[in-house]
Amino acid sequence: MSKLQVSLYRYNPETDSAPYMQEFQVDTQGRDLMVLDVLHLAKEQDNGLAYRRSCREGVCGSDGMNMNGKNGLACITPLSEVVKGNELTLRPLPGLPVIRDLVVDMGLFYKQYERIQPYLQNNEPAPAIERLQSPEERDKLDGLYECILCACCSTACPSFWWNPEKFVGPAGLLQSYRFLADSRDTATRERLAELEDPFSVFRCRGIMNCVAVCPKGLNPTRAIGKIREMLLANAT
Amino acid sequence: MSTMRSLSFDAIIIGGGGAGLRAALELAKSGKKTAVLSKVFPTRSHTVSAQGGITCAIAAADPDDDWRWHMYDTVKGGDYIADQDASEYMCSEGPKAVFELEHMGLPFSRFDNGRIYQRPFGGQSKDFGKGGQAARTCAAADRTGHALLHTLYQNNLKNNTTFLNEWYAVDLVKNANGDVVGCIAMDIETGEVVHVKSKATVIATGGAGRIFASTTNALINTGDGIGMALRAGFPMQDMEMWQFHPTGIYGAGTLVTEGCRGEGGYLINKDGERFMERYAPNAKDLAGRDVVARSMVMEILEGRGCGEKGDHVFLKLDHLGEEVLGKRLPGIVELSKTFAHVDPAQDPIPVVPTCHYMMGGIPTNVHGQAIMQDAEGNDQIVGGLFACGEAACVSVHGANRLGGNSLLDLVVFGRAAGMFIEGALNEGIEYLDASSSDVESAMKRITRWNESESGETVPELKRELQDIMQTSFGVFREEKNMVEGVERLDQLRGRIASAYLPDKSNAFNTARVEALELDNLMEVAEATAIAALERKESRGAHSRYDYPDRDDANWLKHSLYFPADKRLGKRDVNFAPKTVDMFEPKVRTY
Amino acid sequence: MVTNITNLGRSGLSDWLLQRVSAVILALYTLFMVGYLLLSPGLDYAAWSGLFAHTWMRIFSLLAFISLAAHAWIGLWTVTTDYLKPTGIRIAVQLIIILAIFVFLVWGITVLWGA
């Protein structure tokens, strides 16, 4: 059984002046492993290999990385989906500073998430039971609330690469729309006022890389379109 | 050591899952100087994987629903060693805690009248078991844990909670009086080790399912808080009680929610027979999880398992139709396609009982205060130490947790701990500062790894530990096998104590974190093993071939494991709820 | 909100709207021109100059020129803010662009109304 040829992005700030690619031969015993399993096997060869992981079932969003050129979650990406010609190249998510190996500094990504005030705002006194919401109103949150903050989308977005400080990015905007669309949220005007500048929303050029890579099958581009519609309706 | 930086807080919460974030929210709102210290970014905590829902008598599905019925189910589900005062507190305070979550924005699914959607779950009944199946589990599709965890994180952002994300708590710091006054923690990104001082230290580190080879738990569930508390000499309660979830995906171990059976799915053996009708004629597939898991293993052992090796059974869902699956169980459809290569709308999912939940943990009262025993066997509060969530044993789950009760446990007791600590801080609790030798003794373990020069490596030792637990302490247990397991663990402990960490670098050294986690797995495994060997009866999730019956005369008790002399003691179960009559132990059938 | 002072409308929404409206005007103008050229096989100077003698044609053309200027400015401003990170260089390039657009616009107007 020939071994899988795995090329890994390596960088340890304490010992390396520059990042480099390191080759590993990983024995998969012919099984269609997940990419994360391959990383575990590589780590047994080199204890120092660093990557994040937690739930290993695609709901925690820890192990977003670039696999043979495409962003995704290592734990739910089977080799059969990404490997071509027995070769697998793993790099950190593009566009964010690398801390070590496949671990990136997600600070900018989280900052943009926090900027859209990702929490329900409703200043009316809460009832003694839950706030009522019809199933139709609740349906509007489907495809939005499921985001796991893995950053696969934002780090695949050229607009986010060029302006990570000013463009909210697909993940943040998806969450922004999650609250704009919630019948229980009363801060719509304030939320929209924060978004009408030329960068926050409008730097989206409809490239749709975000849609192509989202491991949860969500559609940030559509949410961004909805925000634009709301801004337009609000201002005209 | 003198150069070590220190940080001071009123309260430090170790763990950023549901319980930790709920406690933190309460404290952040009160303006106390609080920090959440989490080894992963909080939304990566294992709460995120909870699927089916949060069980609570909010009376949406049934306007006559009553929290007392929920309490009855909880006590019965726990095979009568759930504390009745704690269960009473959880079930009666529950609706308040769930409505708060909704007000915070949790996107619950809805009934047509706009109220929160509730689905049937295992072990639920109306009218104290006499009124048939109840539907009491509040759900956000099959992603309730995800929705809950994100909502709590979001509201902590709103209230400016301080987060020490990707920090790893190494060990507790005790002062000369034995009070807990903080911890030693490592900033994973830089490797810096810091002394975190605090008047209240809350352990909310979740479970430790990774002591087993096959588990639904996240890779991070290594029992760090349990390990720290055991090393600090505090006792653990009911550690033999491990829930095996009936439906882990065969081979992968990933969870398939009980909600599948709540929505009408059922288990079949190789003959296509709905075998739960034989084991639990009334509740069938919605009997307690321990009952269903045991029945599945019986089917497999008696040769009616599915697949080439006959080592699993099937969960049938196709009769629910694509619409129900898409609306109520979309995450399950995704998971089974990814991990079982099965579309549940067409074919059944291969499942097998898989380690899922630790009922035991740090004994606490309903305020989250950790409890130990004095020499006479009386309860004694541990100064400065609190626990909530899966790491704690209040105990509301007894010998077997009901589905949907874990999320309720997190928010009710996270909230309760937060409220209590706020009050205690207002009253001005003060403890003696830790001396430098107190701090040094908490540094011992990390120093040992950092100075290790040769020995066995972490991955192989971990695999061996998991193999021992899987082999000797699974769904069915018996003396000989467990004695052997305890011996192998004892020997493993020595090898781990001289194991080797090859990578000593500082920046994001995950190898060091995994080494420190291995020590905690070892502590949890040993506590589990000794408690399982000593509890000579079958109760709830703890089933022994050699003691097949429940023994109320001797074991209607919590077990209490003392790490110093590896001894198993007993502690009384509470049978004194405040507002209702207590539930007498009865034979448990479904 | 991200603040900025060099974009056209001071608001992403108005820039976005302007970009789309100007694109529609330019598309109509282009269609008209292509159609005119196809339907006028023996086109000579007199006919061409005659077309632009009509006031409506001059207004239509002016609208197209202004649209082109706005469209170009918004588009190129975006490009400079994406790719030119040093502030000095970015402002210099933006000045050159705006100067060029201004010159072309005035030149266009003199062509239309001059002579």
TrEMBL record, chain A:
**Which pathway does the database say it acts in?**
Carbohydrate metabolism; tricarboxylic acid cycle; fumarate from succinate (bacterial route): step 1/1
Give one Pfam family.
Fer4_17
Instruction: List the GO biological process terms.
Output: respiratory electron transport chain; tricarboxylic acid cycle
> What range(s) does the 4Fe-4S ferredoxin-type domain occupy?
137-167
Keywords for this entry? 2Fe-2S, 3Fe-4S, 4Fe-4S, Electron transport, Iron, Iron-sulfur, Metal-binding, Oxidoreductase, Transport, Tricarboxylic acid cycle
Source organism superkingdom: Bacteria
Cofactor field: [3Fe-4S] cluster; [2Fe-2S] cluster; [4Fe-4S] cluster
Question: What catalytic activity is recorded?
Answer: a quinone + succinate = fumarate + a quinol
Q: Which GO terms describe its molecular function?
A: 2 iron, 2 sulfur cluster binding; 3 iron, 4 sulfur cluster binding; 4 iron, 4 sulfur cluster binding; electron transfer activity; metal ion binding; succinate dehydrogenase (quinone) activity
What SUPFAM superfamilies does the entry give? Answer: 2Fe-2S ferredoxin-like, alpha-helical ferredoxin
Report the PROSITE patterns cross-referenced here: 4FE4S_FER_1, 4FE4S_FER_2
Q: What is its EC number?
A: 1.3.5.1
Query: Which top EC class is given?
Result: oxidoreductase
Q: Which family does it belong to?
A: Belongs to the succinate dehydrogenase/fumarate reductase iron-sulfur protein family.
**PANTHER family the UniProt entry points to:** SUCCINATE DEHYDROGENASE [UBIQUINONE] IRON-SULFUR SUBUNIT, MITOCHONDRIAL, SUCCINATE DEHYDROGENASE IRON-SULFUR PROTEIN
Could you tell me what this protein does? Two distinct, membrane-bound, FAD-containing enzymes are responsible for the catalysis of fumarate and succinate interconversion; the fumarate reductase is used in anaerobic growth, and the succinate dehydrogenase is used in aerobic growth.
Q: What is this protein called?
A: Succinate dehydrogenase iron-sulfur subunit
- Report the source organism: Halomonas ventosae
UniProtKB/TrEMBL annotation, chain B:
Q: Any idea where this protein resides?
A: Cell inner membrane
Q: What does the record say about its membrane topology?
A: Peripheral membrane protein
- UniProt remark on cofactor binding: Flavinylated by SdhE, about 5% flavinylation occurs in the absence of SdhE.
Query: Where does the record place a coiled coil?
Result: none
Question: E.C. number, please?
Answer: 1.3.5.1
Q: Which GO terms describe its cellular component?
A: plasma membrane
Q: Please report the stretch or stretches of sequence annotated as the Fumarate reductase/succinate dehydrogenase flavoprotein-like C-terminal domain.
A: 463-590
Q: Which InterPro entries match?
A: FAD-dep_OxRdtase_2_FAD-bd, FAD/NAD-bd_sf, FRD_SDH_FAD_BS, Fum_R/Succ_DH_flav-like_C_sf, Fum_Rdtase/Succ_DH_flav-like_C, SdhA/FrdA/AprA, Succ_DH/fumarate_Rdtase_cat_sf, Succ_DH_flav_su_fwd
Signal peptide limits: none
This protein's UniProt keywords: Cell inner membrane, Cell membrane, Electron transport, FAD, Flavoprotein, Membrane, Oxidoreductase, Transport, Tricarboxylic acid cycle
What GO terms in the biological process aspect are recorded for it? Answer: anaerobic respiration; electron transport chain; tricarboxylic acid cycle
Cofactor(s) listed: FAD
Q: Where's the FAD-dependent oxidoreductase 2 FAD-binding domain?
A: 10-407
Which NCBIfam families does the UniProt record give?
sdhA_forward, sdhA_frdA_Gneg
Entry similarity comment = Belongs to the FAD-dependent oxidoreductase 2 family. FRD/SDH subfamily.
Q: What does this protein do?
A: Two distinct, membrane-bound, FAD-containing enzymes are responsible for the catalysis of fumarate and succinate interconversion; the fumarate reductase is used in anaerobic growth, and the succinate dehydrogenase is used in aerobic growth.
What's this protein's name?
Answer: Succinate dehydrogenase flavoprotein subunit
Q: What is the lineage of its organism?
A: Bacteria, Pseudomonadati, Pseudomonadota, Gammaproteobacteria, Oceanospirillales
UniProtKB/TrEMBL annotation, chain C:
Query: Which InterPro entries does the protein's record reference?
Result: SQR/QFR_C/D, Succ_DH_anchor, SuccDH_FuR_B_TM-su
- TM spans (from-to): 21-39, 59-79, 91-113
Domain of life (superkingdom): Bacteria
Q: Which residues bind heme?
A: 71
Key words of the record: Cell inner membrane, Cell membrane, Electron transport, Heme, Iron, Membrane, Metal-binding, Transmembrane, Transmembrane helix, Transport, Tricarboxylic acid cycle
Q: How does it sit in the membrane?
A: Multi-pass membrane protein
State what this protein does: Membrane-anchoring subunit of succinate dehydrogenase (SDH).
Q: Can you name this protein?
A: Succinate dehydrogenase hydrophobic membrane anchor subunit
